[in-house]
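Consortium newsletter contribution from the modelling node. Members have asked for a concrete example of what our holo predictions look like. Here is one, prepared for the uridine-diphosphate-N-acetylglucosamine complex that several groups have been discussing at recent meetings.
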Amino acid sequence: MAAGKGTRLKSKHPKVLHEIGGKPILAHVIATAEKVVPARDIFVIIGHEAERVREAVAGTGVNFVLQAEQRGTGHALMVARDALLGNGNKYDQVIVLSGDAPMITAETIRKLSDFHTAQKADMTVLSADLDNPYGYGRVIRKGARVLAIVEEKSATPQQKKIREINSGFYAFAAPALYEHIDRLSTANAHGEYYLTDMAGVFHQARKKVVAIKTSDAGEVLGSNTRAEMMMLDARLRLAKCRQLLEQGVTIFFTHTCVIDSDVEVGADTVIEPFVQLLGHTKIGEDCRIRSYSVIRNSVIGERVTVRPGTIMEDSRVGAGAVLGPYTHMRPGSEVGEGAHVGNFVETKKVKLGKGSKANHLSYLGDAEIGEDVNIGAGTITCNYDGVKKHKTVIEDGAFIGSDSTLVAPVTIGRGAYVAAASCITEDVPADALALGRARQSVKEGWAREKREAQKQNGR
Ligand code: UD1
Ligand code: CA
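And here is the predicted structure:
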């Protein structure tokens, strides 16, 4: 179920697309569901901002059911009737997951399903004992049987004391669900069709409703408010750090690091405090990622040193390279094995070959730079003429003197030298020296004469 608006978030964006652990809440739920059944057996009920939600998770190959008007969780399942029982789909058992409860594990979903099957139940509620059950539906039991689920708003003071809550995850016998679902009504505090009321409906119809408690209450937590969301985010990230520690990664001050769920890091890599590793970043073994670096969707080889304050997005770095401090690698930067990209160097759509060095204060954009090239301090590729971007090619072994501007399109040939402070507007052939600067002139004694003149004028 992912059709709700998420009113309590006070957000323009649908609740299930808010991110925790670096990806939409709904994407977590789908990824877990996919560990239990194939995507073709997953139906995502969408409604509020349906197209945005569909687009965000369409890549998973799941099915969608449109709940155009969101009249409650019971209504969401009513709308799914044809998808689940029609079209040649005849499911015996339907497992209902909440699109806003991302901590659930595949193991728990399987336990719920197996328990439901073993009990031959019509409805099985996944429940949990919470220290603070406020806001959740409460499970009203008589022994092993569930008589009803009462929402917070409708609960009596006595019922509010019950600590066993409804997780919003259920297993249903599909035929029984759809035989009885039309008995739900909107006669409640919100004027909605509550799926939770199916417990009472079934109980009255002498159908079997049971509950199975999770051992880890943390798995069923929902994200109805920003505060809840941030708490889940912190839990997910801590779990991610623990997983990496388990795999041989050193992480200092784990609580200061922000590591997204899908990030991979090799053993013996050291992550210093206040590092962010985001998206689909992959880091090899024996690297050191120093403080304040923010790395998104990038692939880093083995033995790479990332010095403090390095920002990297959609880039690749070869083994043994050294980056930073304060290197800014924008999308499409590829740094070869053993290359160095240093202080305040900005790169974009650049290939920097094996062993090449750009150590200080440069802008390298739309460039193909070969192996063992030395890019002097302050070198700038002038890639933009105000309308179009142009390419700079620097061949193997070339040496670019400090403070040079290379006006693209331009090629510096293999092994060529560019004199410091040159403005290069034409191609430089291999092994040549190019000077593109004014010749220096010297006026002997000029400074002394100026000082003496100033003294005589009493200044
Ligand atoms: C629901 C349960 C509550 C349980 C809690 C667990 C009901 C009435 N209450 O409350 O007993 O303790 O989950 O987290 O079910 N949705 C739709 N269509 C709708 C309405 C909601 O698809 O018309 C989706 C939402 O997007 C959300 C999920 O259903 O992903 C749950 O809805 P939500 O409004 O968050 O229910 P809760 O108030 O949390
Ligand atoms: Ca919820």
